[in-house]
Specification:
By secondary structure, the chain is an alpha/beta fold. It has 2 domains: 76 residues, no CATH class; 152 residues, Alpha-Beta Barrel (TIM Barrel). 40% of the residues lie in helices and 10% in strands. It has 10 helices and 8 strands. Strand 7 and strand 8 form a beta hairpin. Helix 6 packs parallel to helix 7 and helix 7 packs parallel to helix 9. The longest helix has 16 residues. The chain is globular. 38% of the residues are buried.
Length: 248
C-alpha cells in the first residue's frame, strides 16, 4: 500500500477503521430540512449514520451540516450534498433532449460548467446527471431528460456534460460530482410506462444501452445510479450481470 497516493491511503485507512454501522451510514441519502436542521438529522450526521443529504441548497445550512459531519462525527467524513442539477441551476438551459438537438458537445459542456459553478456556491457537490438512457419510445414520460435515441451522440454529449460538471479536478470549489444514470436500460420501459419492467437481449443491452455509460466512464464520471426498473426479471439494484460483471 505504500505506493498508493496519499488520498487513497487515507481512504483505505478509513474503510479499515469503519464499523458496520458507519459503512451502512455512508450509503444513506436523506432529504434536507429546507434551511433547517432538525434534531434527528443533526444526531444522525454526528453519529455517522448519514452519508449524503438531498435538496438542501441553503449555504448556511449546508455549512453547518458539513461542520457537524467533519468535526462531530467519529471519522470526520464530509457529506455529499445532492441535487438534480439537470439542465441548469440558477440559469436554466434547454432540456437535455433539446441540447442533444444542437449536436454541439462544446455548448453542452459550457452549460454544465455554468450549472456546476452556480450549484457549488450553495454547497451542492453532487448532481444526478447526465441521464444517458436511450430514449426511443416517445410515450415514456422521461424522454425529455435523455440525450436522444442514438448511442453514439448520447455518449459524446454525456462525456461533455461530465467534463462540464466535474471540471479539471473534483477538488476545485466550482466542481460537482456527476452521476451517469440509470444503469441500465431504463429507457426501454415496457409500453413507455415509467418504472415498468424492461426486457432487453444482451446483444441489444451492450450495443444500444451501455455505450453511453462507457463514454461517461471514460470521461471520468464520479458516480453511477442504478435503474429503477428490473432487467429481464431481476431488479437493477440487485442485478449481478449489471453491477458485478459489467460495471465493476
Amino acid at each position: 500500500m505504500g505506493h498508493l497516493p496519499a488520498p487513497e491511503l487515507h481512504i483505505r485507512g478509513l474503510l479499515e477503521s469503519m464499523t458496520l454501522h458507519e459503512k451502512i451510514g455512508q450509503l444513506q441519502l436523506v432529504n434536507g430540512g429546507g434551511g433547517h436542521i432538525h434534531d434527528d438529522l443533526r444526531a444522525a450526521v454526528a453519529s455517522g449514520s448519514i452519508g449524503a443529504v438531498l435538496n438542501e441548497v441553503d449555504p448556511q445550512t449546508v455549512r453547518e451540516l458539513q461542520n457537524i459531519a467533519s468535526n462531530e462525527s467519529r471519522l470526520g467524513i464530509p457529506l455529499l450534498i445532492g441535487r438534480d442539477v439537470i439542465h441548469g441551476f440558477a440559469t436554466v438551459f434547454p432540456i437535455p433532449l433539446g441540447q442533444a438537438a444542437s449536436w454541439n458537445p462544446e455548448i453542452v459542456e459550457r452549460g454544465a460548467r455554468i450549472a456546476a459553478r452556480e450549484a457549488a456556491t450553495t454547497g451542492v457537490n453532487w448532481t444526478f446527471a447526465p441521464m444517458v438512457d436511450i430514449g426511443r419510445d416517445p410515450r415514456w414520460g422521461r424522454i425529455a431528460e435523455t440525450l436522444g435515441e442514438d448511442p453514439y451522440l448520447s455518449g459524446i454529449l454525456a462525456a461533455a456534460m461530465v467534463r462540464g460538471f466535474q471540471g479539471n479536478d473534483l477538488s476545485e470549489a466550482s466542481s460537482i460530482a456527476a452521476c451517469a444514470k440509470h444503469f441500465a436500460g431504463y429507457g426501454a420501459s415496457e409500453s413507455g410506462r415509467d418504472y415498468n419492467t424492461t426486457s432487453i437481449p444482451e446483444i441489444e443491452l451492450r450495443g444500444i444501452h451501455l455505450p453511453s455509460f462507457k463514454a461517461a466512464l471514460d470521461a471520468g464520471v464520479a458516480t453511477f445510479m442504478t435503474s429503477f426498473s428490473d432487467l429481464n426479471g431481476i431488479p437493477a439494484t440487485a442485478n449481478e450481470l449489471l453491477l458485478r460483471k459489467i460495471l465493476r
